[in-house]
Design brief:
The structure holds 2 protein chains of 2 kinds. Chain A is α+β, with helices and mostly antiparallel strands. Chain A has a single domain (about 5-175), classed as Alpha-Beta Plaits. Helices cover about 20% and strands about 25% of the residues of chain A. In chain A, a hairpin with a 2-residue loop joins strand 2 (about 35-45) and strand 3 (about 45-55). Chain B has a single domain, classed as Formate dehydrogenase/DMSO reductase fold. Chain B is built from 11 helices and 1 strand; from the N terminus they run βααααααααααα. The longest helix of chain B is centred in the C-terminal third of the chain and has 30 residues, at about 205-235. The chains are: A alpha+beta, B mainly alpha. The interface between A and B is large, with 51 and 48 residues. Strand 2 of chain A pairs antiparallel with strand 1 of chain B, so a sheet runs across the interface.
Chain lengths: ~180, ~325
């Protein structure tokens, strides 16, 4: 099993509903976020292109955060989801410094926090909060090892990219372009 | 003009707008750790070579500083932790791929070793020192008998400590400025150099001071070579590393790095040490303090500038 997410940059309108849904679902402390929207404007005026991306932890196959964690608090869970166990985390910040996507932050309670792909919802057969709430339905979630899953189907059909694959992390958050 | 404008809705403290997860604690610890490693390295080296009488300060006096430095460094590390109550997790896990884990375990070995060295040098400072407890007296006698084995162990672990302070940074691919294997040898050399400078400061023996001025001169030359090499490597690498090098080549860290680290911390003390070796009278305290100042500035600047360097996507 290999959980992954695909975000359609052509459908996303940048409304940030995914951000608010995540903050509510996961009790993210005020002032922080586990997912966020990035707007990239590219080109020469007046020929400008905008790409909107709902970003979060890439749940990399080769995660530098898991590698550099001195206690094993950062670990791979089922389906390759990268998680932090708060009671094992000492808050040294090594994983935060190691993430090329800057997807982690220190929770005010001391441990390091990040996107969990809403593993608690997946276990109940639900979709991650951000995916479930998206008004344009621009996000797809599922098991890459299952060729019939939503995410496998859409990645077969559409052209896509990952963010800085050259960082060598093998990210599992795909952007449809 | 072709432009790319990136707007992110993320504003997590202390990640955005510029990463600042590590503040003064980490560079200060790296300085203390490197300095302690340097002092212990020379003490162990001269015991192994049987030159205790030739270098009395290096072997019998300077090591008294090392447990103080290491414990102050450990304290800084502890202050840096955000989830302090769980610090013991470091010592219930061994993670071979994590430099932090290596560092925690190395300190677990080096700190007791430094205490032994300090205990053995105590009588140099307080001649009438009495351990009072018989088992402590027996332990001291045993340590003195086993000094050669202790020295070999110290040499090994002081080197690991010195190199690891650089590897801690270089293991982070996410921060292009740190992601160079030169940092390991560079921090080791700088640690040895600050160690030599401290021995110079403490020594009253002109011959010993002269030898350490020579050693320091060689170490400074190696450091300059490694720094030039580091920039050559960056400039021949990918765009993110070229951008990282530019922080020091016209960017915001240019003046502090070249003035405080390279100028005041390396070139000026090297020049003064050459003058002294040529029999000009230079008070030893000047080059020695400059070397220590350069060592601490290098760690602060690399720690801060590294967090400012990043991948852009």
């Amino acid at each position: 099993m290999r959980y992954a997410m695909a975000v359609d940059t052509k459908k996303c309108v940048g409304c940030s509903d995914c951000v608010v849904a995540c903050q509510t679902e996961n009790h993210v402390p005020i002032g922080y976020c586990r997912d966020w929207v990035v707007e990239v404007t590219d080109g020469t005026y007046p020929q400008l292109e905008i790409e909107l991306r709902s970003e979060r932890c890439n749940h990399c196959n080769n995660s530098p955060c898991v590698r550099c964690c001195p206690t094993g608090a950062s670990h791979y869970s089922e389906g390759g989801i990268v998680l932090v166990t708060p009671n094992e985390c000492i808050g040294c910040g090594a994983c935060i410094a190691s993430c090329p996507y800057d997807a982690r932050y220190p929770h005010p309670d001391g441990y390091v926090d990040k996107c969990t792909f809403c593993i608690h919802r997946i276990k109940k057969g639900l979709k991650p909060a951000c995916v479930a709430v998206c008004p344009t339905r621009c996000m797809y979630f599922g098991d890459l090892d299952d060729p019939k899953s939503e995410v496998s189907e859409v990645l077969k059909r559409r052209k896509h990219k990952t963010l800085i694959p050259e960082a060598g992390t093998s990210p599992q958050l795909y952007f449809l372009i | 003009m072709k432009e790319e404008l990136i707007i992110s809705g993320r504003m997590n403290d202390p990640i955005d707008p510029v990463l600042h997860i590590w503040s003064w604690e980490i560079p200060l610890y790296l300085f203390f750790g490197g300095l302690a490693a340097g002092i212990l390295f020379f003490a162990a080296l001269y015991v192994i070579q049987g030159k205790e009488n030739q270098f009395p300060t290096a072997v019998r006096k300077a090591p008294i500083l090392t447990p103080v430095l290491l414990i102050a460094g450990l304290l800084a590390l502890f202050i840096d932790l955000h989830h302090k109550a769980y610090f013991w997790q470091l010592y219930t896990n061994i993670k071979l791929q994590s430099p932090m884990s290596w560092g925690a375990w190395t300190l677990m070995v080096v700190t007791p070793l430094s205490l032994i060295w300090a205990a053995l040098s105590l009588k140099e400072f307080i001649p009438n020192w009495d351990w009072k407890l018989p088992w402590l007296i027996a332990f001291e006698a045993w340590c003195r008998k086993q000094l050669l084995s202790i020295a070999w162990l110290t040499l090994l672990f002081a080197s690991i400590l010195g190199i690891y302070t650089g590897i801690l940074f270089s293991a982070f691919n996410a921060r292009p400025l740190w992601n160079t294997s030169i940092l390991g040898p560079l921090f080791l050399t700088s640690g040895l150099s600050t160690g030599a400078a401290t021995i110079m400061l403490m020594s009253k023996d002109p011959a010993e001071r002269k030898t350490f001025a020579r050693i320091d001169l060689l170490l400074i030359a190696i450091e300059l070579f490694l720094i030039v090499h580091m920039f050559m490597g960056f400039m021949a690498s990918t765009q993110v590393q070229i951008d990282a090098a530019r922080l020091f080549l016209g960017g915001e860290y240019t003046a502090p790095f070249w003035v405080f680290v390279v100028g005041m911390g390396l070139v000026v003390p090297a020049f003064l040490e050459v003058l002294e070796l040529r029999k000009k009278h230079i008070p030893v305290v000047v080059p020695a303090l400059l070397v220590l100042f350069g060592g601490i500035m290098m760690r602060f600047i690399i720690a801060y500038a590294g967090q400012a360097s990043r991948w852009l996507y």
